[in-house]
Amino acid sequence: MMEERYVKEITPKSQDFSRWYIEVIRKAELVDYAPMKGMMVIRPYGYAIWEKIKELLDRRLKETGHVNAYFPLFIPESFLKKEAEHVKGFAPQVAWVTHGGDEELEERLAVRPTSEAIICSMYAKWIKSWRDLPVLINQWANIVRWEKVTRPFLRTTEFLWQEGHTAHATEEEAEEETLRILSIYKDFVENDLAIPVIAGKKTEREKFAGALRTYSIEALMADGRALQAGTSHNLGQHFSRAFNIRYEDKNQNLQYVWQTSWGVSTRLIGAVIMVHGDDSGLRFPPRIAPIQVVIVPIPANEWKEKIYKKGEHIEKELKKISVRAHFDSREEYTPGWKYSDWEMRGVPLRIEIGPKDMEKKQVVLVRRDNREKIPVSQDVLIEKISPLLEEIQKSLYNQALNFLKENTHNVNNYEEFKEIIENKRGFIKTFWCGNQDCEDKIKDETGASIRVISMEKEEKSEGNCVYCGKKAENLVYFAKAY
Amino acid sequence: MMEERYVKEITPKSQDFSRWYIEVIRKAELVDYAPMKGMMVIRPYGYAIWEKIKELLDRRLKETGHVNAYFPLFIPESFLKKEAEHVKGFAPQVAWVTHGGDEELEERLAVRPTSEAIICSMYAKWIKSWRDLPVLINQWANIVRWEKVTRPFLRTTEFLWQEGHTAHATEEEAEEETLRILSIYKDFVENDLAIPVIAGKKTEREKFAGALRTYSIEALMADGRALQAGTSHNLGQHFSRAFNIRYEDKNQNLQYVWQTSWGVSTRLIGAVIMVHGDDSGLRFPPRIAPIQVVIVPIPANEWKEKIYKKGEHIEKELKKISVRAHFDSREEYTPGWKYSDWEMRGVPLRIEIGPKDMEKKQVVLVRRDNREKIPVSQDVLIEKISPLLEEIQKSLYNQALNFLKENTHNVNNYEEFKEIIENKRGFIKTFWCGNQDCEDKIKDETGASIRVISMEKEEKSEGNCVYCGKKAENLVYFAKAY
Predict the structure, then answer these.
(1) Chain B residues touching residue A50 (CB < 8 angstroms)
(2) Whole-prediction pTM
(3) For site-directed labelling of A93, which of A275, A292, A309, A376 has its Cα 20 to 30 A away?
(4) Number of folded domains that form chain B
(5) For residue A366, which phi and psi values (nearest 5 degrees)?
(6) Spatial separation of the C-alpha atoms in residues B276 and B399, rounded to whole Å
């Protein structure tokens, strides 16, 4: 039967995670490969998730005083070179424009790998006085980084993101902004994407090229590898000194501004897929699901008309209360095929209506998160949906939180460390002396990197470095990462 | 006085339109020049208008069944070459990426000047059966065209736009879609941007490179030049044959699809500025104004606290009913300076509150469209605002419509044609034989081009070609254009 074949076409997640990921994102029509190596097309069903992400995060950023703007795609090579560490970090990944029409350019242009250089050159013009501060600008844009190994959503030559770039009068304000954004990201990812994250500070080795300090939120994928889900950088005065961004303070003294930058990208869609998916396909958290409720009719000849009418009515009523509902009226597929198809596509809630349901004046709800079947009277159906969607949202978060807890290992010695990274993966919570030598050696020997230095106050304590055994003050999270 | 100087810094619109345009968009902080020739930065106040345009147009497109997606920025040169007229039209304007990191690419990549080529290559994979049609995809994206002469918003090397790309089973459906979009554009520009437009068909000379037929909406700027504000193309089967996009029809026969593409861009912001602005600066239609109402306190010492409290309260109450209000609490500027500043920035409605108003329990409203001053009791203020904003929206439209009517000239002979183009500009409505020779000669001799062939049914009639005098069936609109 067709429906059986359809579901079996996806490699089960539990069997081969990488294959499952690639198969499910293409079968669910989230994404397709473009004809150019390493580039992807985000199809409507996948782009709808990005639209929800944009809407929900943009609202949070605007509520905290940020405004959007748009800066050019191209950055002259000389600008990229102004901040020494920055160019070192990004130059190997830059796509270069060398010709405009038939003419060779005098100076080649970088397709933005990030926009600090161009934005700072404008801030140097715009910022004159303490009255101009703070500047709290965000940009939604496309970014290009020439990548050798790519995977849709996680690492592609082009991706979409938002990048915030702020300027402040004092170091304290910049640090405050950096941490405010980190907490906005954490709140957004945990509440709207239902993904629990570890927030913390990056080591010198892992920080952004040009930053003073980098903070990030890290999520744990179902295969035990960590994914950096968002970063917030305190840039200090590195860029303001390189680009000469100065303001006159209240005492008429010229001061360099203090800056931050921060971003999340379409990579978040990859995180949603990898955290919540199961053997049958995707499972989208209701708040970002393109379709929250699918209504599937089970038509028997004499009942067909009534069932279709009811299905259309339910769709209409749900849309009225802003539920993203879809009535699947296709006649060329069986109900069973449709169930599998919509499960694979991750719709959080299904409403089935058959002849028996019509007789009983009910419908059957089927939750995607736990497959529970709930018969509900047609009279009270509409009012049940929003609370149930919120419950599914929480249930997905709790499942992911349990997974994170079960796969976070407190470890004190290096043998155990290696054994866990080799066999179980997940996060390893341990002490590190702060010496980059130890960090490098662990990375070389196990493939695990320090994802973040813990910022949780209650965890401030002392131990011994898991590698060298010396006294250590940094409680850190190690993991293999994407 | 500071406030006097500020206003005088802008060249009056009536004195030098081009200078006024450049000065006002920079003074109002809509836009700034980027350090690369021909590129612009859209500043927060300008970008807020683009966000409103996106929101209002995107809603219309979704209501008519369109969905958004995202296709790659880069297009391999060989793809661009597949449709012969298309590459001929765009190749001279392409920015070419030749290197990724340190490596030279085997095939150079075009930074998209428009996305037909890359989108068609994907449609060839996605479209198999009549069940897959219609495909109604839109994309919001950045576009690069290497331009020799640039002007912010109107013609820049990079700009933002939406581009719709649809595929249909029949020629009729494609034509229907092309015209549906044209009418959506007309409705949107007239109602939300308050700009009356002429809709019609382009001549062969002026159509899109690769299209079967192009339709456009044309607006008249305050200097009497026309601006193409949106285009909708019926692509016929030109691209489906070049890219081999075929579907199996209900009789199992393979058929090439029929396609359309259409777009509007950040150029619309330029149109808003040029149509509505006056000697004092910008005038934004309320529906797209970043700030709809500005509240300016006139503090006298003993009244200051009460006036500020009232101003903040009004801002809060207006925001509650979704009016974009702003209380200008800055203490370093005088009320008079603020009036000029917000007038220059185009805010549709100003609320002034001074000590005398507080005594009378009133405020004074000042309309930007006609400078009318309206004292209003504080008790009924909030409920008055939305209707008044709608009235201002209509008033701006009507002013623009009157200007369009006054500057559309019915002309029958070529001497008069030349005289009007030379001295008055505006649209010339006349007959044209359909011969491209006449069209070319008029363009060479006067600089005016055929903006559109009229589609208005009541205007179908016959006359003589304004150039050669032969019998002519095309009633056309000529103008000098941006």
Answers:
(1) 70
(2) 0.96
(3) A275
(4) 3
(5) -125, 120
(6) 8
